[in-house]
Specification:
The strands form 20 sheets. Strands 15, 16, 21, 22, 23, 24, 25, 26 and 27 form a nine-stranded antiparallel beta sheet that branches. Among the domains are: about 170 residues, Lipocalin (Beta Barrel), CATH 2.40.128; about 140 residues, no CATH class; about 55 residues, no CATH class. A hairpin with a 4-residue loop joins β83 and β84. The chain contains one helix and 86 strands. With about 1050 residues, the chain is mostly beta strands.
Length: about 1050
Amino acid sequence: MKKLLLTIAVALLSVTAINAQVLGTTEWNKTLFTVAAAEDATSGEMAIDDNGNLFVSGALTTTATFGSTSLEPIGLAQYIVKYNATGAEQWATAIQGAATITAMDTDAEGNLYVAGQFADEILVCDVAGNQTSLVSSNSDSQTAAFIAKYSATGTLIAAQACEATVDATVNDSFMYLGYPAEISISNIQVEGDALYVSFTYNGDVTLGGFSLDAKYVFNSMGFGDYLDTTSGAVIALNNTTLAPSALIVNASVKEDNASVYRGINDINFTVKDGNAYVSVVGFGDLTIQTANSSQDVTFAMDGMGFNEYGMIIAKVGAIEAVKVYNNVSTSLSVTSYNKVENMEVVGDNLYITGTFRGYCPLDNTLSTLNGDTEKSTSDIYVASLATSTLSTNWVVATPDKNDEVNQKYETIVGTMIYPNEVRMVTAVKNVSGNAVVSTSNPLVSFTGEVSSLNTEQATALAYNGDKAAFILNVATLSALYYGTIPVNELVEEETIEVINGEILKTNMWNSSISAVQATDANPASPATMDADGNIYVSGTQTQDFDFAGTTIGSLGVGAYVAKYDVAGKEKFAFALYGSIALTAMTTDAEGNLYVAGSFTDEAYITDIEGQTGDYETITGATGDWSMERPSSFLAKYDANGNLLSVNKFDAVAGYDATAEYWGSMASVSIAKIVCEGEKVYVQFDYTGDVTIASITLEAVYADMFGWALMESLNTSVVSFDADMTNPAELAKVSLQSDGTAGLIETSSFAVNDEEVYLSAVGYGNITISSAVGSETVTFTFDQEGGNTEHGALVAKVGTGLQVAKFNNNPTTTSAMYNEIVGMDVYAGTLYMAGTYNANCAFKTDAVAIGASEIYVLRLDATSLEKVGLSVNAKDEGATNTYYEVATGMILYKGNVYVTGAVIDMNAETVTENLNYNVSSEGNMSLGVARPAMATAYCDDYAALVNFTETTNVAYYSFEELVGIEESVVDGTSNITYANGMYIFAEAVDAQIYDVQGRCVKAVKAATEIATEGLNKGVYILKAGSEVVKFVK
């Protein structure tokens, strides 16, 4: 018979878009060597070290040359070859004899660890010709295991063999019905000075002074004979000597002499920061043992083959925890298909990929069955679990490949988790012979959204950081690809919708906080919302109040911050003491909170521990400055309210001593904070020089008459690293620094993809400056006649500086109502909201009917050209009595919701609430009158906050939803809701579907269904003939 030889080629791949290949386009390739006859070829194991060096292994049955090294096989040997990151061979060696490498890993020094199975005797060789002989008592099959360690240069450091043996008493029993004792290594991982190893075994295992006893069951036929059962274990070895150092987990059948057969199907693990996370799949009465504890777990069996194949997740470290996932019983043979392929911890979540037959053990609503009919032999799932509780965040199944039942099955070739998605190479194989029939490359985001990459027919996969490699088409001619994983973040596509009418659809909940007397309330305290919909509100505090079961004490006139979750549950609150007014808040992607404020004299920045815990005392400018509060601070808290850092800022008058300074005290305040990527962007408004670590924000003053210098607003956008260090001034708007007259009236900024957008309204010579350039624009200022052009500018600062100037008609009308209250970028459009009086700079024929008008502006984010302007044109009454104010902007899929009010300028009281809906096409309509002096929003939710003697929070969804954390079902329905559970008047079949139409949870003939474990989002509950739409 003619043999087809297996040829391996290497290609370096580059970064491409996320919907291209697993890696990218080929930059180079070369044919390297012939390794084995096709019928002997194995897919091989691979590993990539921290320096990008690639280690590859596989079957070696013919002489092969690697660089200057020629390998001659003995039996069905295994080769190991090392390439550097550019594809050059570094060294090669072999494990001679009947061996199979099943796992590989590297450590921080670049040492290589290999593990696998062998029979009879093998020689573990290295590049220097050294070899270690390992011997098994079984010469017929690979029932023994080996582990070896090589240095980065290919020198063998240590090698160990491990073999299982049948218990002597059992072996001597009448008609022992067991199989040869066996140990099979499934995974290895290096962390610190330990090498962690997982394996299944039947028979007693001894390695050095370490031993595990096999478990047996009596033959149920009643002959008093024994049957083997499979156990699984994870142990830690010293990574230098490979000697055992600790038992992590041992999973076995319960030792109770019962005659019913049961056992462990699969065991896998990952280790992160000293914590081992172990998965066990099994059935029957089991025992989970660690070095410190033992727990019995029972999965149902009926003795006739109808079994519950459940899963156990154990966390072993400073804190031990065990989570049991029950399953639906099945008579299907699942042993070969219920497996965990990969486990990895990223942040606070454990990601698991695996296969199942029958029902998925982590979510038994996922099934290979359609009713009682099998639709596939096996399916693939991806799950996210919280590392703190081991509970599932979400579980999804990849699209079914419609494999022929009992003829073909789905399996996972490998998994990559980078940068924020789970990428897999999967295959459909023949049950007989395991030949690959087809392949696919599912991709699952960290929020559980499933998509796919272009198909690559890989049969082995390895990655480390952003480097990855895979072997292609081992069954015929093979190629080994190495390259960089695309770093494109998987983000939800920004889509524009047209909403004519109310943008805030559903009022999900309302709450209030009584922290002040009405006379002390600050009418403009900030609020913010994180990406998950948790909302932080703030306000003035002059009296004690209770929140989340804690009394928040007061001390004079201070401030507070309080957190609610998406369901309106009180989470925590803390006070900030001293003469403080909060001015800005935001959150970052990790849920950290940033709080900014202005203060006078001395302030105490506390957290959830109050003054009994750690807090910061900051000292600012002193003196009788009433409410001016010339100093500022920026505090960072974690998502649990613990104070992480505090930065304080002061302004010092930097006027020219040759002129007469007519200004008041120099001040600095923080108007806005934005977090993007690893950066924190802060808007400083200041009238004196502000020193921030190594940089100084220099104030520019207005020379009103050639002899009197007075303050004018200066605005700088400064970026910080996430730990609030490394400040850099990115953009600044001020008067031209030549002593001319003028004024900056209002300013704001936004950030998108590391580009800063800075806007301002003012008059005179105004300069926008940055590290990439500066430009001065001039708006007319007739200092003697008072005829003033209140113009606007919008600048974009990125790799260059781009400035758009908007001229206005000069007027003698005061500009005290020119304000920018909101600025954000979405889907290529820059949105701004605010008020103007007299004429609008963005459309000069838009003339205010009363003292001021509310507007929404849309600019092209690339060209800064105007897309559209919407104005309300409301006559609020006498211009010397009433004016309109905008208090917040909410942006949802290109639609803008603006909150505002009509103010009596004499009494400074609200006479009418104004809320406007502006569609993505610019249609502006007056909305429902809802009081709001602050707003907050994320992708799915928004909140309106108002301040009287109480802080009032109204929380909304952009969708027409039923809130899950309140009584959500019409009283005439047969469905009620309480405490995270939908309750049915009678037993029904019920399913919960996500917005993609996938069934995420189901029960049969039940009177309730829990919402626990569902990820945040919109769901449909179908219970019998009734349907309920809800949000979590």
